[in-house]
Specification:
The chain has 340 residues and is of the alpha/beta class. The chain is built from 14 helices and ten strands. The strands form three sheets. The chain has a six-stranded mixed beta sheet, sandwiched between helices. Strand 1, helix 1 and strand 2 form a beta-alpha-beta unit. Helix 11 crosses helix 14. The radius of gyration is 21 Å and the shape is globular.
């Protein structure tokens, strides 16, 4: 049975069921509730319903000095549109041998075919042990990536990225990367306006690229050491203009080589990839919130031509600008040629 991942505002809220396992991390357990629970349609109606279940109803021990009381048992998984498995430090044979316990295997049998599966940090071990990640690309916390790959050789492990979106199965690195992944899902389901509103309510950055490095060498420049913050702010105000590495490096009084190295250390991306991501986000915002023709959106976002913007949006989002606007436009739009 196929499951709809992104219902319209008139539909019943999309149900997210979070599976709480013994030894779970309370912070990561709370991420789906915080992010999905803040998503609303223009009328203020919730877009998601978030419920928690355990392998049995009752208390679940955490890695902190308290337990949580879970009202629902694993049968709740059968009602989910999306299942989220947060991290746990007590996965037993799942972590040690790459196999499910009988109790966990029985619980996952409740999951319907077509249900979207999401893992935060070491929750990916559960999906991998169940076979959901075989032949797929996935990630986990950088400190567990080598162990994860040895245990599950059929999985293509990317140890560097914040999260991996493989369609109906998504995995993230640890802690804050779970926030990035959940915001990405909201953005994928309902567009940038809804995701940005959730980010503002949660007081977190609205977007970090899934391909961004987990470990950034110098997120804040060392005292007395030149950084690239000024150049990034300057570029964000001029995305519609041609921007070169020489321009950005000159602004920070650095050589291109030094600037490129410092930029990657601080942002986790190359300057060129960072600029492209910012322009994609600008294009998404304009497609959702304005009636500007696609050619004008392309110019204002800095892509120059509609063809160039289409190539980049299809690479990042898998859809054309026109298809994206049809899905997420918040007001009455102007018809655009389907060829764009």
């Amino acid at each position: 049975m196929a499951v709809s991942h992104a219902p319209g505002a008139a539909d019943a809220p999309h149900r997210v069921v979070v599976l709480a396992l013994t030894g779970l991390l309370p912070f990561e357990l709370g991420i789906p509730h915080r992010i999905f629970g803040r998503a609303q349609d223009p009328a203020g109606r919730p877009l998601y319903e978030i419920l928690t279940c355990g392998l049995a109803a009752g208390p679940v021990r955490t890695d902190a000095d308290f337990a949580i009381d879970v009202e629902h048992g694993p049968e709740l998984l059968a009602t989910a549109d999306t299942v989220v498995v947060p991290a746990s430090y007590e996965l037993g044979p799942v972590y040690e041998e790459g196999r499910l316990t009988g109790e966990l295997a029985a619980a996952l049998e409740h999951v319907r075919p077509g249900t979207r599966l999401v893992a935060i940090c070491t929750g990916g071990y559960v999906l991998a042990a169940a076979g959901y990640l075989d032949g797929r690309r996935a990630t986990t916390h950088w400190s567990s990536a080598e162990h994860f790959q040895r245990l599950f050789p059929a999985v293509e492990v990317d140890p560097d990225v914040l999260f991996v979106d493989d369609g109906d199965v998504l995995t993230s690195a640890g802690v804050a990367a779970g926030i990035d992944l959940c915001l990405h899902i909201v953005r994928r389901d309902h567009g940038t306006a809804v995701a940005n509103d959730v980010a503002r309510r949660t007081v977190v950055p609205p977007h970090r690229d899934g391909g961004q490095a987990q470990f950034i060498a110098r997120p804040v420049p060392e005292e007395g050491r030149p950084g690239t913050t000024t150049a990034r702010g300057w570029a964000l105000e001029r995305l519609h203009e041609p921007l070169t590495l020489e321009d950005l490096a000159r602004l920070e009084s650095m050589s291109v080589r030094t600037f490129t190295r410092r930029f990657r250390e601080e942002a986790g991306l190359s300057p060129g990839r960072w600029l492209t991501r910012q322009r994609v986000e600008r294009a998404r915002h304009l497609l959702e919130s304005t009636d500007l023709p696609v050619d004008r959106v392309a110019r204002d976002a800095g892509f120059g031509t509609a063809q160039s913007m289409r190539k980049h949006l299809q690479a990042v989002l898998g859809v054309t600008p026109t298809a994206y606007r049809r899905t997420f436009r918040t007001g009455a739009g102007v018809p655009e040629p389907d060829s764009i």
